[in-house]
Each structure stands twice: as structure tokens, then as C-alpha cells.
Amino acid sequence: MKRKKVSKAGRGWYTGWLLHVHRVLWGALMVTVVTHAPARAQGEDRRDGPAYVHIDTNFPEALVFADSLLVGGASAMLLAVPAASRSIRLTAPNPDAWSIAPIARPLDVAPGDTARVVMRFPYHYRIESEPFGADVLIQHLDQGRSIGVTPLLYRSEDPLEGSILVRRIGYISQSIQPGKAVWNRHVVHLEPISELDTATQMNLNPPRPHRAWIDYAALGTALAAGAFAVHYKFKADDLADEYERTRDEALTPRIETHDFRAAVAFGVMQGGVAVFALRLVLR
Asked: In what order do the strands lie in the sheet with 152-156?
């Protein structure tokens, strides 16, 4: 069988067609590589990238630590943290506020994701006075409640309402506003009451006059009543002895009368002694 010969023109057309197909396939391959390579790289970056945390706290000045790594302040909207972090810890930024204990929360967030962590501190009130040893009271709605003696550190889950009264005997009391921050420190200088103020207070509350005649009357009544009690008791005893000898029933009413009078006199004597003793205590 004879093979059909192809002309030069046909061979040229055939070669051109093969080159065109080769170019199309190569272009499609390049498009596929270019299209999928960034996506793969982006996915790898996401798996290896940081996570993000938003801190919801009442202490925006606090410092934020992811495990032991300082990542910024709590006032930031978002904080980047290593995805392997297992806890978030907030601490006070001011060394003077050493009484504020750090708080921590567990953390579990995937790379590229954002977690919201709520971390609320108790409210701290540091009250100092010069001189120290002053009573500290919280006054709210016309009521006072003692919370301790200066120097004092008081913690509350909510901000204190009303006012804080600092008072000490011999000094002028002072009232201060507690504050709404997490850390509130107050140093109160108490002024001593002057001699003039002391004299004024004494004049406003003069001592009550002592009525001595009441003491004498109470004491005299007690002595007289005691004497009558003894007298009537002796008479009742004498009549009782006579009754034992004579068995005279007519003596019985007289014995009972003298016993009654002795009992009444004894009661009056006790009342006089009680009045005299009470006035001695209240003097």
C-alpha cells in the first residue's frame, strides 16, 4: 500500500496547530499554579499566625500578659497574642497600687481568630490619716457604717456610694468622696480641736446641777425605814414568844400586823438605798 505524501504546506499547517495547542495547555497550567499558590501560602500563614484578644475590663490602665509575655495595655481594642498562649493575665501598672492582686483567665483561641475576655477588678480604697487610728465610716442615705480604722485598705465589688467620714476624738472630722476608679487612695490630715472649740463645746453642754438634798433624803429615808423595820420585827418576835407560852389566839392578828409593818419598812429602806446608789453611779 502506498503512503500518501503530505505537501509542505500541509506539514506547516500541522506544525502550527501543535504549537498552538501546546501554548494553550502551558498557559492553563501557569494560571492554575499562580491561582492556587497564594491560597496555599495564605492558609499556611493563617495556621502559623497570631491570635487576637479584646479585653473587657474596668481597669483600662492594666498591663496585659499572654502567659508571661507582655503584649500591651488593656485599653487597646485588639491585642495580638501567640496562638499557643493558654492564659491572659492583667496586672496593675502603678507600683504604688501593689495591693491590687493580678487576675488571670484561661485562653483558647485559634490562629487568626479573636476572643473577648471579661476581666473585672474589685474596687480598692486606701484610707490613711495623720494622725493614724481614726475611725472610717461609709455614709450613704443618712446611714453610717464603720469599715475599720486608718490605715485601712477596703475592697468592694462595686464602687462605693455616698461619702467616707474620717473621725478621731480630739480632731475635726473630715468627709471625702470615695472615687469610682479601681485604685483610690486618700490621705486625710486631721486638724486638732483648739482650746476655744473645746470650751465652746463644754458651754454648749454644761454639767447638770447636783441636787444634794435628794441624796440626803434617800439616805435618811433608808435609815429611818430600817429603824422602823427593826422595831416592828422585834415586837412581832416578842409577841410570837408570848404566843408560844400562852397559846393565846388573840395575839395572832397583832403578830401579823407587826410583821407586815416590818416588811413595808424594810422595802422602803431598800428603795432609799437604791436611789442613793443610783445617784452615786450617775454622778
From this structure: 152-156, 123-130, 183-189
Written as nine digits, the cell of 255 is 403578830
Euclidean distance between CA atoms 184 and 267, whole angstroms = 64
112-134 in b/e form (b: 16+ CB < 10 A) is: eeebebebebebbbbbbbeeeeb
Cβ neighbours of 62 (radius 10 Å): 25
User: Cell 485601712 sits at which residue?
Assistant: 152
Question: Could you report the per-residue pLDDT of 97-127, keeping only the tens digit for each?
Answer: 778 999 999 999 999 999 999 999 999 999 9
Helix (H/G/I), strand (E/B), else coil: 179: coil
> Which phi-psi region, left, alpha or beta, contains residue 159 (left: φ > 0; alpha: ψ -120 to 50)?
beta
Q: Which three cell numbers stand for residue 124?
A: 480598692
